[in-house]
Amino acid sequence: MADLIKCGRRCHAIGKYKRALTFFTKAMRSCPCSSGTKLDKCTCRNFEKIASQGGSIFKEAVEICPCNVGILFKKCDNPHHIQALDFRAATYEALGKLDQAIKDAEWILELAPRLPDGYLCLGRIARQQKKDEYAWKIYTAGIEASRESAVGSSPKLQELSRAREPLYRRFFTQDPLSLPSELVTQIFSELEYKQLFPCLRVCKEWTRTLTSPLHGQLWRDIIYPTLPNSCPRFDQLKRAVSWAGSGGARSILMLHRSLTPLTSSELTLLLKLSPNLQFFSAWPLPQGCSLPLDVKQWTRLKRVMIQGHNYEFHRVPVDHPGGFPKTFLQNAANSLEHLKFEGIPRQWFNGMTSIPRLHNLKSLEIDHYDRRDYGSSIPFRIFYLCDAFPRLERLHIGRNLPFLDPEPVADWPKWWERLWPHLKVLKFDTWSFGNGPRADDLGDRTRSTLRYLTCLNRGNSLQHIQFRISSPSRNGRCITSDDHDLLPGFDVGQFSEFQNLEYFSLREASIPPDRARNFLYNAVQAKKLTSLDIVFPGESRPADERVVEENIRHLQGYKWLCGAPSIHTLGCYNFRFGLDVEHGEDLSLPRFLASFPSLRTLVICSIRYGLERDRSHEQKVALESLVVAIIRATHLRTIHAVGFGGMIEQQPQLMQVARDHDVELTEDSRTDQWSDDF
User: Fold this and answer.
1) The F-box domain covers which part of the protein (predicted)?
2) DSSP class per residue in 19-50
3) Considering 150, 171, 192, which residue would you say is the last residue of a domain?
């Protein structure tokens, strides 16, 4: 058979097609399956018709036809028999006899339906006939027939996959609802909530399927869009809550100041229909709207994010329409773990009676309104919250609550050992106390409050401290010092160990190195401290030789930190070094950074290299030289060069050095290590 096929291929190559047909036919008849007799092909099958009706080409090829020819027909996977038919079909193609070529291709399919040869041959002819969809179905049937074999297991399977590839995007279309229910839910979960409702208008089958209990997960997160004209109608929302299944919605989110067309009664009804609610957000709460006060059904509500509309939380008494929803939160006290709100009620500045008791609350993010309005100059007694939220782990005080009050100091000795024993994260975002007549005094009291907060539990529960606070006040008080003796005989200094501190950032204030040592030494020795910001002293500008010398002395003061094995992230702010950053006799920044064996991320930010509009050539060269020296001296993986106005990324030579050392050099800010719970 092999010799006959070889002769036929020679004849085909020189254009003697009829002679080639003779050799290929003789090769077919010499196969043991034919017993030397002339073979007939069953003509009952119509693969193209079956494919157009959505039938299985493979199944049709496998089944034995009950006709006289089909009963006598034998399956055969002899490669020479398959080759002879394949080459004969190609010869018929060359002669323009596509009907004969199709018969031979289908014959291969019937002889060996699990091999890719017949599908390749028949698909090729279908492409010549411009029947691309039929060809797509043939190739797909061949791949499915060989599903037990990996695509890369044979060249023919790879060829089959390549042949189908250009047709894939055009013809791989199917009703997504015909897929397994898990995939249907996953596909439609990618849509925005508002986009689900138009899907119900496709057909009745889609409506019935998508609203069935099987896909209740799709309707459990009600998210209001920012544009009011794209909001679902309230009657649609009511039905969607019922489609969500037992327990109703799991999330109701009204975000980004959307002009929410919900009335107080409508919002109350949605909440009552969702006893298994886990996340509620109204940012802001619709004007004059109140939340249910007489219902205690939300036993799974864990997260609440809420903002008062137009200062209403401060102006309106708690639990009144538009006011802070104290009772609503109190009714969810058993499950509520995360609370974020903006707008502190006026009553909170005077006492604890209006504060809900949330004994399971873990994280609190609290902010006020613009500091120019509504009591922003009144210091807030943060320690009142210790009794209301005893298990707090994360406290984040926003930028518009600049003043804190450590009162009532007289009660501290009896409270001290039980105040927030689980506090891990402490953030304070205000960077300026203003210039008013009381600003210095209020600023000092705020620093004292923060210092006392850091000393709770001897500071050993804290893992993350991040303050955006201005430089020390006129009397030199700093939160890392012990000059905060508001209560005689009560020494705050003895409550400072910080053995578990991992992250410390005072990005706006420079700390003397000796005070930083007192504050951080235990965490460094315990190999817990992983991230630290160093702010260099002095005015932001100008950057003269005096500033450079002062920066070098400041860096020398941190010799106690050099080589700390736990440090993997450092931030350096407000610095300026000379041009000779690599060979100076003093401890330079590159040498300092190179001493940390685990350092992988660096943040640099300094206005002392000039503003973008007036940065000199000398300043650009100095900064570029410094960054190059840092890259070469360290094993960094990422450098965040923040606030340089695109100058870093516009230096091709610098960027090439970074690529050569496999360092990502970017002007994007670093993502906070502790992500927001919301």
Assistant:
1) 173-222
2) HHHHHHHHHHHTSGGGTTSPP-------HHHH
3) 171
The DSSP annotation for 217-270 comes to GGGSEEEE-SSGGGSPPHHHHHHHHHHT-TT--SEEEE-TT------HHHHHHH
Give which of 552, 574, 557, 558 is closest to 643, Cα–Cα. Answer: 574
In the DSSP assignment, the letter for residue 348 is G
Residue 411 lies in a domain: no
Cis bond upstream, residue 542 (ω within 30)? yes
Residue 643: CB partners within 8 Å, gap ≥ 6?
605, 606, 607
Query: Which residue from 260, 196, 272 is spatially nearest to 234, judged by alpha carbons?
Result: 260
Handedness of CA 209, 215, 218, 220 (dihedral sign): positive
265-295 pLDDT tens trace:
888 999 999 999 999 998 888 888 889 988 8
Q: What is the pLDDT of residues 395-414, one digit of tens each?
A: 999 888 888 888 776 566 66
Domain residues for the domain of 147 are 2-171
Per-residue model confidence as pLDDT tens digits over 418-435: 789 999 999 998 766 666
DSSP state of 349: G
Q: Residue 10 and residue 12: Cα distance in Å, rounded?
A: 5
Whether residue 135 lies inside any domain: the answer is yes
The Cα 396–Cα 364 span in angstroms is: 6
Q: Is 282 helix (H, G, I), strand (E, B) or coil?
A: strand
The last residue of a domain, from among 148, 171, 194: 171
In a domain, 299, yes or no: no
If you write DSSP's letter for every residue of 93-136 in order, what string do you get? HHTT-HHHHHHHHHHHHHH-TTSSHHHHHHHHHHHHTT-HHHHH
Helix (H) or strand (E) holding 572: strand 569-573
pTM: 0.73
Per-residue pLDDT reduced to its tens digit, 314-364 = 888 899 988 999 999 999 999 999 999 998 888 888 777 889 999 999 999
- CATH number of the domain that residue 157 is part of: 1.25.40.10
Report how many domains make up the chain.
Answer: 2
Q: Which two tokens stand for residue 499?
A: 């053995």
Q: Which residues contact 410 (CB under 8 A, 6 or more apart)?
A: 487
